[in-house]
Write a structure and sequence with these properties.
Blueprint lengths: L27 H6 L14 H6 L17 H17 L21 E2 L17 E2 L10 E2 L10 E2 L2 E2 L9 E4 L2 E3 L13 E2 L4 E3 L3 E2 L7 E2 L10 H9 L1 H24 L5 H12 L5 H18 L9 H13 L7 H16 L6 H17 L4 H7 L2 H21 L6 H8 L18 H4 L3 H22 L5 H12 L15 H25 L6 H19 L6 E2 L2 E2 H8 L1 H10 L3 H14 L6 H20 L8 H8 L5
Parallel strand pairs: 1-2, 4-9
Antiparallel strand pairs: 3-5, 6-7, 8-9, 10-11, 12-13
Helix pairs in contact: 4-5, 5-6, 5-7, 7-8, 7-9, 9-10, 9-12, 10-12, 12-15, 13-15, 15-16, 15-17, 16-17, 17-18, 17-19, 17-20, 18-20, 18-21, 19-21, 20-22, 22-23
Length: about 625
């Protein structure tokens, strides 16, 4: 079984931000910021760096002040500093939300709250306080002297941007998954309040995920928005709850279209939990990508600096040898983020992460079947989802699946003791994938057969009879049903029809591997027609317009079987077949997903084929080249 590549010589992940240091000396303010201190105190013991940035200098000394021994306090102070500097326009990429003008006196950020008034080696510094003991300590920071009732107000979150605080990068701190980005509130003017709020009541998902206080945004009306503007302490909790609700009510249904209710509830329970976790962070990133794509379907969410930074922070957290179930769930959420953003990108790194955890699970049991029977429901879900992503990733990467041996053990109709089971059974791939076990096995074996064929060709030792025999052993289990399957208007009906599309397209995939990328081969043409027949059923059957789990059957099936749509489309010769595939991808796409990317790639392939036909040149379909170039994951 191929081993997922890893590097033991160099740490994976992205480099640290420019300027980031692990300060072990200097004043405590600079050490909390993890920035270099000039270590030049003035007559009051304040370093020049803090004076320049208008931060309270917490002084020097070998022993930390008592109140800084709690990592929670350190994390809070760090977030206050980041927010303050951003509001003053002192962080690159942030124009600042604070008051401008020469006549405005620049405030200084006070870092020591009254409850931290224990003895400290740091000299006192007369400054303007950001904290107010009359307010909840973790909720919001406001520059004192800017009362809520008058003039322009700038409410800045203390740490809505991250819900995770489990990384230790300094002798006395725990770092959030990602740095905070200041709240920028949408311009709302209420004459009764005499209040002007600066742009965007944004969520923890950063500046691109704007929460507009209007009725069409998750049920929040103007009166609700006004209440939270009057009561900024409640804003953070409210928006965090709204974002998690967005994941539970909208995202998870699109993420795992054929998962049963119990599995969706389990996934949501992990995300909605108030316990910090990497999976929770990754789910928030996924919701952000999902929303950005709905707002602007033609723009890539991963081109956003905010999204890239958050992704890098999660990647750094997972940059280790031993992975947990939380790490694997986080990795699967990030893969879904790539899928929602078009399907391309560096999803392989995250798939490797989940695969490593599944390898660990398999090592704890005698065989993969025992693992599926004895693991927790969460681990069973991770195993099946990782296997599914691995199988379809092999089409894009043109490598044998990582889990080929496990797939043979579990799903091979030749070797496996597992027959086709009820979709609710832990060993069935019908939930959450909508694909029969033996079709999953056939897809994996076909990718492996392609790699074997390429090696034989490279060695000039390919035996055609051997190739045909190996393919025949696979195709035996991909024969079409004697009669079309009955399509019930429920989740099982969705899964059954999706599985038939996977079966037909898996047989097409196998025949392409055997005969080459030649669309005029009779076997290939027959398989294209077989696959098209199920797509025509999707297009015209009234039952496919029925809603199942909040979406039409047609939409759920199309979004779940993009592998079949791409492969069948690439080898389609007839204009009406191409038009059908394009119309279904158009109709059932909604901005978030890889359907648009697949449609664009199909247009490229069709244009190349049509141009070659006009020039009477080769009709070979270069579908693998386009797929490898775009790195689209066909899930």
């Amino acid at each position: 079984m191929p081993v997922v590549k890893s590097s033991s010589n160099s740490k994976r992940g992205v480099p640290k931000q420019k300027g980031a240091v692990r300060a072990k000396s200097g004043c405590y303010t600079c050490r909390i910021r993890r920035k270099k201190c000039d270590e030049r105190p003035d007559g009051h013991g304040r370093c020049m760096t803090c004076i320049r940035l208008r931060l309270e200098c917490l002084g020097f000394g070998a022993k930390r002040p008592e109140w800084l021994r709690e990592s929670r306090n350190v994390a809070e102070v760090r977030e206050k500093i980041k927010i303050f500097l951003a509001s003053q326009g002192m962080i690159k990429g942030h124009s600042g939300t604070g008051p401008r003008g020469a006549e405005t006196e620049s405030p200084t950020l006070h870092l020591r709250a009254e409850e931290y008034s224990e003895s400290s080696e740091s000299p006192p510094t007369p400054t303007l306080s950001l904290t107010d003991t009359s307010r909840p300590h973790h909720m919001i920071s406001s520059i004192r002297g800017d009362p809520y009732s008058t003039g322009q107000e700038y409410a800045i979150s203390s740490n809505l941007y991250s819900v995770f605080t489990g990384r230790d990068h300094s002798p006395f701190s725990q770092e959030s998954v990602h740095d905070t980005s200041p709240y920028q509130l949408s311009p709302i003017v209420d004459n009764n309040l005499s209040l002007v709020v600066s742009p965007a009541l944004a969520s923890s998902f950063g500046p691109l995920y704007h929460f507009n206080a209007t009725e069409d945004m998750m049920g929040v009306d103007y009166d609700t928005a006004t209440y939270f503007l009057r009561n900024p302490e409640q804003t953070i909790t409210h928006v965090v709850d709204e974002m998690l609700t967005h994941y539970r009510e909208r995202v998870v249904k699109a993420q795992y279209l054929f998962a049963d209710t119990a599995m969706r509830d389990l996934i949501c329970e992990i995300v909605m939990s108030h316990t910090p976790s990497r999976a929770r962070e990754a789910a928030s990133l996924l919701s952000s990508v999902h929303w950005q794509r709905f707002q602007n379907p033609n723009a890539s969410a991963f081109e956003s600096t905010d999204t890239q930074y958050r992704l890098a922070e999660i990647q750094n957290l997972l940059n280790r040898q031993d992975y947990s179930s939380d790490d694997a769930m986080a990795a699967l959420h990030v893969i879904s983020s790539y899928l929602f953003d078009g399907g391309g990108g560096n999803w392989e790194w995250w798939l490797e992460t989940s695969c490593r955890y599944v390898d660990h699970l398999f090592s704890r049991y005698h065989n993969p079947a025992e693992a599926l029977m004895r693991c927790t429901p969460k681990d069973v879900f991770i195993i099946k989802t990782s296997i599914w992503f691995d199988v379809l990733a092999s089409v894009t990467t043109q490598r044998s699946p990582h889990f080929l041996r496990a797939i043979r053990s579990l799903f091979s109709p030749i070797q496996s003791k597992i027959e086709e089971l009820d979709a609710e059974d832990s060993s069935s791939m019908m939930s959450p994938m909508g694909c029969h076990n033996q079709v999953v096995w056939a897809l994996a074996e076909t990718s492996h057969l392609f790699c074997w064929k390429q090696r034989q060709l490279a060695n000039e030792s390919l035996s055609i009879p051997t190739l045909v025999r190996m393919a025949a052993e696979i195709e035996e289990y991909l024969q079409p049903p004697v009669s079309p399957p009955y399509c019930a208007t429920n989740m099982n009906g969705c899964r059954a029809l999706a599985s038939e599309i996977f079966r037909a397209s898996a047989r097409l995939y196998l025949r392409v591997v055997v005969s080459g990328d030649h669309p005029h081969v009779e076997d290939i043409k027959e398989s294209v027609q077989d696959t098209i027949s199920y797509m025509q059923f999707l297009n015209c059957s009234p039952s496919c317009s029925a809603e199942v789990n909040g979406q039409t059957m047609s939409r759920s099936i199309v979004r779940n079987t993009v592998f079949g749509f791409f492969l069948c489309g690439a080898f389609s010769e007839q204009p009406d077949h191409r038009e059908l595939i394009q119309s279904l991808l158009d109709r059932e796409g909604d901005g978030a997903g890889n359907g648009g990317s697949i449609r664009h790639l199909l247009h490229e392939i069709w244009e190349q084929r049509d141009a070659a036909r006009r020039q009477h040149s080769s009709t070979v379909v270069n579908w693998r080249h386009g797929l490898a170039r775009t790195k689209i994951l066909l899930v």
